[in-house]
Amino acid sequence: MKQPAHIEALHAYVPGTQPQEPGWVKLNTNELPYPPSPRVAAAVAVEADRLRLYPNPTAQPLRRALAAHHGLGEDHVIVGNGSDDILNLLARAYSGPGYAIAQTSPSYSLYPVLAAVQQAPVLSVEFAADFRLPVEDLAAQAANLLFLTSPNAPAGVAFPLADIGRLAASFPGLLVVDEAYVDFAQETAVELLPRYRNLVVTRTFSKSYGLAGLRVGYALAHPEVIAVLDKVRESYNLDRLAQAGALAALEDQDYLREVVGRIRSTREAFQIRLRERGWFAYPSQTNFILARPATSSGRSGPEVAADCFRFLQTRKVLVRYFPAHVLTAPCLRLTVGTDAEMATLNDALDAWQATAK
Ligand SMILES: *Cc1c(COP(=O)(O)O)cnc(C)c1O
């Protein structure tokens, strides 16, 4: 069967490995190591008895609760099948041939895939090694849509709110701040929303709420943008179980605070251990750490990172390695797990450093 040339040439997004056999310490896809709030299973069980019926097409109860949670009107919210669905809707509505997408590099590798489906040019602005936000460079891109991951993935660093505000003020297109990890950080661009009509903030239940398997994300933006996204979405883009589960999770903010607090303290402790080991680690405001492995004699670089990655795999510790970019090639991205998982990782790193000179 024939396909349009841009689809034939398309490279699908490559997700991190999801091993099917047990026994792995899984620190590669930034999932929460703790279960979601117990209220989720109870809410989902109730809805399981109603699966004969279509879900609420706009997920209105969830939208209303999210709006209240963020102190915004209900018309400022749209929900989706993961924030990937929301990012897709943004690309569908605001990019295409002649409507370029700008991004930083490195960044979330889904963005170029979404652009390719739309036949939208991609304009990439490179980070320097310090991962400071190149505000002027980004603002000067002739793009209709700009995807910015903040706090950043894969570096884990947060950008000052003032920089994001300056970018929103100077970039003429739609600025999408992908806040997948923001619950582990200190600042959010949500507070900039009243000031900038061209600002969209996307969020997910996959990371801090521990619901990657349920697939719920949302966007907050000016009602005009939300109305456009509502035009291009699937009519039932959030199923019954997902609507009920996400609502229950949102209503249990005490639980969220508790698990986020645990991740933060594990993260801070582990960053110290990495530095004691002689490794450089970017200061993380997320639930992962981008760190540069160094051998016992202080060597580092892409070969060292690849060697460490392979060694960890032999110990059934799975982390993420991004060899394709010069800034990530000497590094590994380590998801923050439980204290016990991080102790296993730490022991494995001791063993690797004992062999790697
Ligand atoms: C995990 C992640 C998402 C998306 O998550 P969903 O599971 O689709 O909600 C979006 N952006 C970034 C940067 C992520 O890391």
Q: What structural keywords apply?
A:
seven-stranded mixed sheet, 357 residues, binds pyridoxal-5'-phosphate, globular, 12 helices
Mean of residue pLDDT? 97
- Please describe the biggest sheet, giving its number of strands, its sense, and whether it closes into a barrel: 7 strands, mixed
Which hetero ligands occur in this complex?
A: pyridoxal-5'-phosphate
Helix percent band: 25-40%
Describe this structure in words.
- Helices cover 38% and strands 14% of the residues.
- The protein is built from 12 helices and 12 strands.
- The chain is of the alpha/beta class.
- It has a 7-stranded mixed sheet, with helices on both faces.
- Pyridoxal-5'-phosphate binds next to helix 4.
Break the fold down into its secondary structure elements and pairings.
Layout: H1 5-8, E1 25-26, H2 38-48, H3 60-70, E2 77-80, H4 83-94, E3 101-105, H5 110-117, E4 122-126, H6 135-139, E5 145-149, H7 161-170, E6 174-178, E7 199-204, E8 217-221, H8 223-232, H9 240-251, H10 253-276, E9 280-281, E10 288-292, H11 302-314, E11 317-318, E12 332-335, H12 339-355
Parallel strand pairs: 1-11, 3-4, 3-5, 5-6, 6-7
Antiparallel strand pairs: 2-8, 7-8, 9-10, 10-12
Helix pairs in contact: 2-9, 3-9, 4-5
The structure holds pyridoxal-5'-phosphate.
